[in-house]
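Continuing the series of single-chain predictions for the mutant panel. This is the parent chain; the variants come on the following pages.
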Amino acid sequence: MESFSTLLRTASREQHEEVRGSTFIGDLLGHKLGVEAFARYTEQLWFVYGALEAGARQLAADPVAGPFVRPELFRMSALERDLEYLRGPGWRRTVSALPATLEYAERITECTREWPAGYIAHHYTRYLGDLSGGQIIRDTAERNWGFPKKGDGVRFYVFEEIPNPAAFKRTYAELLDAVPGDELERQRIVAECKRAYALNNAVFEALGEEFPLTA
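Parent structure:
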């Protein structure tokens, strides 16, 4: 029988490829957009992870989602250091969320409040994605804009408390496989995972509209 972690990974593969193929990310990685676009993207992450980590505090003792609350994953402190570097010390007065970002964050909050297993879907798509593909963005940002290696501007992508990402991912897969629930519940989590990718992609589309390439 296929494990739940494998089911989740294979079922969301198409949506994952859509995110990877987004025009905004392609332009950002292709050095077609400037550091302002990167900073704006970092702002959106701050709102999304604010919802995720507020949810983590609320669900730490939850029997379903609690095992996924791992402080070594938390990104808010790193994001705030990056935003201070990118936007200056008054960054909190200037950052703003796109409507698509607000929708994404609100869905995470809704799952936190009403369906902890759904929160896991958002936890999985964000943290595991940034632990993996996020490293490509970090490397590109360092090369394109001269950020200090694994330093200010890209600290969000540096998981200092996870020295062995491969081992961590194996442990995470074991947590997924141990999520309680019948087949119907697992299919609901898979559907929420796909929804999380769609919400993330909507943020990329909105950023693409804000930063169109001009001839």
